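Instructor's aside before we start: the two examples that follow are unrelated to each other. I chose them only because their records fit on one page, so don't look for a connection. First example below.
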Amino acid sequence: MSKTTQLQVQELARFAQEQDFNQQYRQYFGDVWEEAGVKDISKMTIQDAEQTLKVLADSEASPQFIKSLLAQAAIDGATPQVLEYFLSSDIDGDGRTLAQELFQDGTNPLQPDTPQPPPKAQVLSPSPTEDFDWEI
């Protein structure tokens, strides 16, 4: 596990410790795990993580929900390898990892981030007009 990934897993673990997931949140998370076919988070495999990412990609989950789902997985004993897989994945294919989008950019990891060019000042120049003689 790279140093950066270790730091990201630690950051996720810190975030997880700060959370107090109520029963409603746990039900939402349970629905995702169930749809992905995960029965025991502590025994989750990379294939389970891939399936979970597919479920998330097909959903309209918010970045906060995804971050909380991963935090809950950390609390419930997901292995460091699985957490690393989640954090280093790029669901939307924009070249930014899930960890970068959640913890650095604050962007949605389900939607590609396209750099927006800075607004350019529009210079309006008179368009060449022709003098038309109207005949009635």
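Example two begins here.
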Amino acid sequence: MSRSPAAFRSITFAAWRDAPPRKGGAAARHYVTLAELLVRLGGFGLGLTWKVQIHDIPTSEVEKASAGAGIGTLQLLARVAPDRQFIDGDFAGYEGDELRVVLREFDSTSWDLCTDDDAVLAEFSRQYPDAAPTPEDVLQEIPWPTDLRELRPDAPA
């Protein structure tokens, strides 16, 4: 049985963060990358299969790699440099055929984390204290089928 997108909750947090000052230097800004978020998912994200849509780069290498059956978390991490910044992108993580999490990068200014897992929401809210509930209309814009079989025409019903 597939999860309903209505069961998903979402938080939004700033993509640019103040980093602690370096020894003898000024405070720096830090961009929260996809790689950082994938690592923060920890064990929850390790077994997921990802489908990717990058809106600012026509058919990016990462998007091509996720075509078909999708790409595993470790393979996705290997393809995105730790400092790789996209402008707009949607990264959908599936467990089996069911959508479990969507990471949405918006205009290089913010990230949305959409999931039905309370522990993941709590951990990200702890890591990113500025996180606030995402407006309901954003949840209606999730561009991914909740059932991965909808993306694969050869999959059994």
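The longest strand covers residues 98-106.
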